[in-house]
Amino acid sequence: MEVMSNHSQGGFKMFSNKNNKLLFDKLIAEIGGNFLNSVIKKYDGDYRTQHFDSKSHLYSLIYFNIKGCKSLRELETTTSSNKKLKRMINVPSVSQFSRKNATRDYRIFEDIFYYLVNKASKKYGAVKLLKDIPPLKIVDSTVVQLAIKLAPQLKIDNERSGIKINTVFNGEYPEKVNIVKGNISDRRCNEGIFTEKGSIYVFDRGYYDYRWYDKLTESGIMFVTRGIKNALVMEERIIYSDPDKHLYDTEVIMGSTPGGNLTFNKYREIQTFDESGEPITFITNIFHLTTEEIIAIYKKRWQIEIFFKWIKQNLKIKKFIGYNENAVKIQIYCALISYLLIYISSKTINFNKSILTLTRVVKCNLLESYDEFLKEYFLTG
N or C: which end of the chain has fewer CB within 10 A? Predict the structure, then answer.
């Protein structure tokens, strides 16, 4: 990609026409060829594969997600009838696609996801949501439900099956995910999630556990979370109070009995009230920030709710095209890969509108010339 000018017009950098490619080519080029070959080899992704290889599998699912295909049949028909797609994808039958979703190692797609996460982190640095506050890591999970008849091995209860996506979101893109069966509790799917001492982790009360708070604190992990109703706390001292603003900030020990669930460390309990007069409580192990800053940090947790809603609505996570655990993981990772490719593209072209807007534009122009796509979108605003 060759830059003609450092000047930005309408939110875009302008590029030369040299080596012009399709927009789809440019997106998938972010997944480096050498890396892709190595990760396919690492997991024997093309072992005994004569036609529908791992690259075709990846590219077809990225296309499936961004274009919003409704079924494997639609994807098969679209790719087999389009010369541009046939140049990039060895078109499979629906039955071939189903078999490879079920059997090709999902870790190929998992490694590609983390490759793009690392690429975004190195190119654009840490995401800062609040000035003079360390980077935030927002942690939450969402459950995608499946028909129990189609996925009995992912059973949640007698009526539902599902898969849980436990996510670390930095405010712009997901950095880590744990994909587990839907009946696993939030507190049991945190392996490898809470690792960065220089960041602040933000999570809701679904992760409430006094002993775990002590483990985080003793490991140097900062966090802000919501308190639960009727929590047992022992007040140690008042840090700050402002009755006019309905703010009360105290140092506390949580739990009831020594040797039971009583915390060994001291925490801050910040209480305020909503418009209906209901108390809202925050718990944190951070003592060097102001009361208002702690509340502002927790308010950023809603960024991950917006991300979950966006990815379910705009990428094909609600409509699954395979129902064993491997197939579901492949589809989820490909949805996340698609999101990151669009995110990286938005940074590359200095796109100054929402990712939702860019996704719509990319969807309409996926098989068009990349340079013409930029010029046309710039000219039509």
Answer: C
d(CA 284, CA 47): 50
Q: Of 98, 65, 61, 60, nearest to 79 (Cα)?
A: 60
H-run or E-run covering 169: strand 160-169
Helices (H) and strands (E) in the chain, counts: 13, 11
* pTM across the whole model: 0.89
> Distance between CA 13 and CA 350 in Å, rounded?
6
Calculate ∠ Cα 195-173-365, nearest 5°: 155
- Decide: residue 106, CB within 10 A, 0-12 exposed, 13-18 middle, 19+ buried: buried
| Ramachandran angles phi, psi of 276, nearest 5° | -90, 5
Contact between 247 and 294 (Cβ < 8 Å) = no
Q: Rounded to whole angstroms, how far apart are CA atoms 229 and 205?
A: 10
Within 10 A of 256 (CB to CB), how many other CB atoms are there?
A: 11
Q: Give the distance between the most distant pair of CA atoms in the chain.
A: 72
pLDDT digits (tens, 9 = 90+) for 1-48: 333 333 344 444 434 445 568 999 999 999 988 999 999 999 999 998
Digit-coded pLDDT (tens) for 301-352: 999 998 998 887 777 666 667 778 899 899 999 999 999 999 999 998 888 8
Residue with tokens 């009838």: 81
Among 76-90, 234-248, 306-320, the range scoring the smallest mean pLDDT is 306-320
| Token pair of 132 as six digits | 């003079």
For 336-365, b/e burial (b = at least 16 CB within 10 A) is bbbbbbbbbbbeebebeeebeebbebbeeb
Q: Give pLDDT, residue 356.
A: 84
Side by side, which strands form the sheet with 247-254? 174-181, 160-169, 136-147, 200-203, 222-226, 279-284, 267-273, 247-254, 233-242
Q: Map tokens 């789809």 to a residue.
A: 24
